[in-house]
DNA sequence: TAAAACAGCGCCAATAGTTGTCACTGTTTT
DNA sequence: AAAACAGTGACAACTATTGGCGCTGTTTTA
C-alpha cells in the first residue's frame, strides 16, 4: 500500500482504537515497526493528538481530542450543518453550549469563501425562534449524566406546596415550549413524575444515602409515557370550532388528526382523547374563547364552564359599570 | 515537497479556487504537468468530486460538492454538532432537510465507535421537542431564495377574507411556536406584512409581471420589526396574577421582565407593552382564565371582558341546566 | 534485581514509488 | 488550421520509503 493511502487509513484506525502499540499496528498494516513509528510521527505532525508512554504497559494513545478524517461534504451539507448548529444558539443553556460554539468556529473557518458568503447572506434570512427561559447549565448536565448512567440524584423542587427535597432517577431531559423537562422516577412517591427544570432550585448529584436504583434502563424518552401511564381510558369529544377556532387549534398536533373542516372554514373536533389529561384540555378549549364550543363530553364542558364562571365572577367583582 | 503533504495542500487549494487548469497548478506547486495530472487523479479517487472539460476554454472544476480539509474536532464537539443536527429533525420541512440527513450519516459513520456509543446512549435521553406543522419544503426554499436575492414572488394566501393573490418581496423566513412565518413587503398593500406559511396555498417564483423591487437589502430578520413598525405607542398595564398565573405566564419572555412575585407565589405584571398588539395580549390574558385579572389599561380589560361575555353567551345558549 | 514490554533514534543498503520528458490522441473554441 | 485544453503510455532518472539492526531509555512485573 502506498504511503499516502496508508496514512489516511491509519488516521481512521487510530481513531477507532483508542489505545494501541506500534507492533500491533505494524502487523495490521503489514509494515515494519520502524515504518509505523515514522508514520505515527507524521500523523502527529499533521495534527493528530497522539500521546505515548514508554514502559511495560505503555503504548500509544489518542488524546480526548479526536480528529475526523477528511469528510467530503457537499456545499449544501456544510451549510445545513452550520445552520443546524446555529439554530440551537437559542438554547442558551443546553449541555453542549461551549462545544458547539467551538465546533462552529472551526467548521466555519475551514469553509471556502463563497460558502461563507452564502451562509452570511442566509444568516439574516432564516431563523428558528425558540423562546427559552434561562436555566443553569450545570443542572442540565448533571441530570443528563444521571439519566445516562441511571443514577439517583437529589433535587430541591418547587412544587405547588413549596420547596422540598426529592430523590429521583431521571429518564432523560427534553426541551419543549420554552422549558426544560425531566421525566423521572420519584423515590418518595414511588412513581414517575415530570419535573419542570426551572422549578428546580438545587441539585445534589451524589446523595450519600444508599438508595436503590430501580432498573429503568429500558425506559427512555420515547417510550416512558406509554410505559408509565396507567391508562384511565379515553373520552369521546365533540367540539365545534369557528373559522378562527380552526385556524388557531391547528397548531396542536393532537387536534389535526381529529379535525374536520367545513367548506366555510369552520369545523369540529371529533374523536377520542385521554381522560387523564382532561384538565389540560379544559384549559386549552377555554383558551380558545368564543371560537370553540365544547359539546361532548359533559365533564369536559363542565370544567370549561367552571373556569368561565370563575373568571366571570372575578371580573364582576371588580365592578366598573362596563359589564 | 513530499507527495503526501502536497496532496493535502492540493486539496485545500483546489477547494479555494473553483476552477483551474493543470498547467496553472503545476506551476504553483513546482511540479510537472504530468505529475499534477496524476495528483488530481488521486484526489479524485480519494473522493474529491473533480470534473474536467477538454477544449479551448476547458479546465478542471470542483463540482458543487466541496470537501472540507481534515478538521480536528474534539470528541465533545463532534457530539455537539451531531445533536444540533439531530435536534432539527423535528423541523420536518426545513429547507435543508435532505442535506442534513446525508451530512449526519456521513458524520456519524466517520466517528469512532466509542463516540458512536456515547451518542446512542444520549439519543434517548435528550430531546428538543418542536411541534411543527407539515409544510411544503419547496415553498420554504423558494421564499428563502427570494429573500436572499430580494426577488418578488407571487403567493396565494388564505387571509381572513379567503384566498387571494399577492406579490410580496420576502425579508426572510423564521420558525416560531410551531409555524413558519415570512415577513415581507406586500406590493398590493404597499406595506410590510407577516405571512404564516401554512396559510399559503401556492407560490409563483417568477411572476412575469415586471414588478419593481424595492430596495430592502438592509432590512433583515433581526431588524425588520423595529424598522417597519409604525409606533403606536405603549400602554401601561397592570395585571394581577395568582400563584398559578405566575407560573403559567413565566413562559412568555415579555412577561418575565415585567413580573413581580409576592412572597406567597402570587404576583403582578406591571410595565409598558406595545398598544398595537393589544388583541394579542387580550387573547393571552383571557387564556389565563381566573389566574389573571387585568386591572389596567381599561381598553385591555374591556377586550378581555368582551371575550368573556361572548363565550358566556355561547355556553348559556347551549343550556343544559348546569349553569 | 533482572527480565519483559514498550517507545524512540540513527544509520544504511535495497527497493519501491515518484517524477519529468516526450511523443502521442482527442476535444472544443476561435 | 491553430490554439488551448485534457488525457495516456512508456521509460529512464531520481528520490523517498522501507526494513533491519543495534542501540538507549523507561516502567512494570516476576
Task: Give the key terms.
four-stranded antiparallel sheet; DNA-binding; homodimer; alpha+beta; six-stranded antiparallel sheet; 12 helices; 24% strand; disordered C terminus; 4 domains; elongated; Arc Repressor Mutant, subunit A; 323 residues
Would you summarize the structure shown here?
The structure is a homodimer of 323-residue chains. Chain A is an alpha+beta fold. Chain A folds into four domains: 3-62, Winged helix-like DNA-binding domain superfamily/Winged helix DNA-binding domain (Arc Repressor Mutant, subunit A); 75-123; 137-228; 234-317, Alpha-Beta Plaits, CATH 3.30.70.
User: Please, how many helices of chain A?
Assistant: 12
Strand percentage of chain A: 15-25%
- What is the number of independent domains of chain A? 4
SS class of chain A:
alpha+beta
How is the quaternary structure best described? homodimer
What's the helical proportion of residues of chain A? 40-55%
* Overall pLDDT metric of chain A: 79
Report the principal-axis shape of chain A.
Answer: elongated
Give a count of the beta strands of chain A, DSSP E runs of length 2 or more: 14
Radius of gyration of chain A: 29 Å
Low-confidence parts of chain A: 318-323
- Element pattern of chain A in H and E: HEHHEEHHHEHEEEEEEHEHHEEHEH
The greatest interface between two protein chains, and residues involved on each side, is: A-B, 109 and 108 residues
Give the biggest beta sheet of chain A: 6 strands, antiparallel
The CA-CA distance between the termini of chain A, in Å, is 89 Å
Amino acid at each position: 500500500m502506498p504511503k499516502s493511502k496508508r496514512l489516511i487509513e491509519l488516521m481512521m484506525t487510530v481513531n477507532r482504537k483508542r489505545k494501541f502499540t506500534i507492533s500491533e499496528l505494524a502487523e495490521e498494516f503489514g509494515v515494519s515497526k520502524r515504518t509505523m513509528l515514522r508514520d505515527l510521527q507524521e500523523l502527529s505532525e499533521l495534527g493528530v493528538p497522539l500521546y505515548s508512554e514508554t514502559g511495560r504497559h505503555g503504548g500509544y494513545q489518542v488524546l480526548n481530542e479526536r480528529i475526523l478524517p477528511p469528510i467530503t461534504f457537499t456545499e449544501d451539507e456544510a451549510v445545513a450543518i452550520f445552520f443546524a448548529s446555529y439554530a440551537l444558539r437559542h438554547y442558551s443553556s443546553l449541555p453542549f453550549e461551549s462545544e458547539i460554539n467551538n465546533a462552529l468556529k472551526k467548521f466555519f473557518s475551514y469553509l471556502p469563501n463563497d460558502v461563507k458568503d452564502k451562509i452570511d447572506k442566509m444568516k439574516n434570512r432564516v431563523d428558528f425562534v425558540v423562546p427559552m427561559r434561562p436555566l443553569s447549565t450545570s443542572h442540565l448536565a448533571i441530570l443528563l449524566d444521571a439519566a445516562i448512567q441511571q443514577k439517583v440524584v437529589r433535587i430541591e423542587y418547587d412544587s405547588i406546596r413549596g420547596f422540598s427535597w426529592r430523590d429521583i432517577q431521571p429518564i432523560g431531559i427534553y426541551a419543549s415550549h420554552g422549558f426544560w423537562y425531566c421525566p423521572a422516577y420519584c423515590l418518595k412517591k414511588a412513581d414517575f413524575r415530570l419535573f419542570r427544570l426551572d422549578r428546580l432550585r438545587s441539585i445534589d448529584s451524589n446523595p450519600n444515602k444508599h438508595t436503590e436504583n430501580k432498573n429503568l434502563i429500558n425506559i427512555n424518552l420515547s417510550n416512558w409515557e406509554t410505559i408509565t401511564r396507567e391508562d384511565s381510558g379515553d373520552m369521546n369529544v365533540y367540539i365545534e370550532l369557528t373559522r378562527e377556532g380552526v385556524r388557531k387549534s391547528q397548531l396542536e398536533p393532537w387536534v389535526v388528526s381529529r379535525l374536520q373542516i367545513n367548506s366555510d372554514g369552520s369545523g369540529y373536533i371529533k374523536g377520542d382523547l385521554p381522560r387523564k389529561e382532561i384538565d389540560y384540555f379544559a384549559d386549552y378549549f377555554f383558551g380558545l374563547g368564543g371560537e370553540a364550543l365544547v359539546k361532548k363530553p359533559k365533564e369536559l364542558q363542565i370544567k370549561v364552564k367552571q373556569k368561565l364562571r370563575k373568571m366571570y365572577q372575578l371580573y364582576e367583582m371588580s365592578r366598573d359599570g362596563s359589564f
